[in-house]
Amino acid sequence: MRTPILLTALTIVAACRSHTNAPQPEQHGSAKVRSLAARYIADRPYATPVTARGDTLLLFLDTGGGANMLYPQALERAGMRAEWVREDGDSVQLAQLPAFSVGAWIPLPGAASPTGERLMVVPPQSSSKDAGDGMLGRTWFANRVWRLDYLAHTLTLVRDESPATATTHDARDAHRVPLGFQLDSAGQRTTHFPRVRVEVAGDSLDLLLDTGATVDLTDAAWATLRDDGAPRERGTSFIVQSVFERWRREHPDWRVIEHADHASDMPMIQVRELRVGGHVVGPAWFTMRPDKNFHEFMSQWMDRPVDGALGGSVLRNFRVTLDYPGATATFER
User: Fold this and answer.
1) What CATH number does the domain located at 7-159 have?
2) Among candidates 307, 183, 168, 286, which has minimal Cα distance to 236?
């Protein structure tokens, strides 16, 4: 999640669901397993499918993102066409992804997507060269099982379009943890934003699991961290101001960079260590956000209130299997 995207813009349901010419995943027993073309840039995952005519798309993968979208500059380059769709007084431009080559395919948005197999066409939220050609968000991940290997920089579709099922968590498996999803009165998932619990300095925190959490460092912050070899725009994790200030008060030895985030002027704090999925990792940077960003805004779409987001600054240590149907995440090192 970069900046909040109004979910009301996602109520348009597209009728076009006829895209074909995508290869089927390989069969491995009862599962459909497919290695997908991918890149990881500064602890943030991207899909890199190649169209049938040879154009490579760079699509940001954001489990905390509100929409599946393409950026206008990608349309002409990749030979895609868009059309305007009007619903309830709003107009949204939608485009169909092109056919992909057999060796570099990605699945289309599935049944959870309000716009069907098509993507919204909107300007990018970042001017960075890494903004790419678009973003695949929460409904692209929904109802599927994914393996995001931050260590090997690979992306695997383990199983596709399985129906959502009730959470069954085996407490004996120390590396598999439950994911929380908001449900409606009928027990169906609503927004598909995953919640995960972590432990920091004895505190248990509920966080949005957010592969897209990004910080764009100020000049001063980047000069401070430049020796780590990562670019200015990089993966981070987020924490609300009330928790941030408690951490700083109770752990004066934890490193803090003031005025770290270019967009918000918020500081960052380096947590000494963090426990998730039976592992202890660290140090890891968390960027501060106002309490209302998560306690009021983001929490309304979660199954319970969250204090921030778990992003690339922590996920970089793992191979993470996100089982949306089973509502679990497995963290391997």
Assistant:
1) 2.40.70
2) 286
State both tokens at 31: 């599962």
Amino acid identity for residue 78 in this structure: A
CA angle (244 as vertex; 241, 250 as ends), nearest 5: 140
Which CATH architecture does the domain made up of 176-332 adopt? Beta Barrel (2.40)
Residues 227-277: tens digit of each pLDDT:
778 899 999 999 999 999 999 999 999 999 999 999 999 999 999 999 999
Phi–psi pair at 190, nearest 5 degrees: -100, -70
CA distances from 25 to 67, 109, 110 (A): 24, 15, 15
Strands 45-47 and 59-61: antiparallel
Three-state DSSP class for 225? helix
Question: Do the domains spanning 7-159 and 176-332 agree at the CATH topology level?
Answer: yes
Which residues are bridge partners to 64 per DSSP?
none
Q: How confident is the model at residue 131 (pLDDT cuts 50, 70, 90)?
A: confident
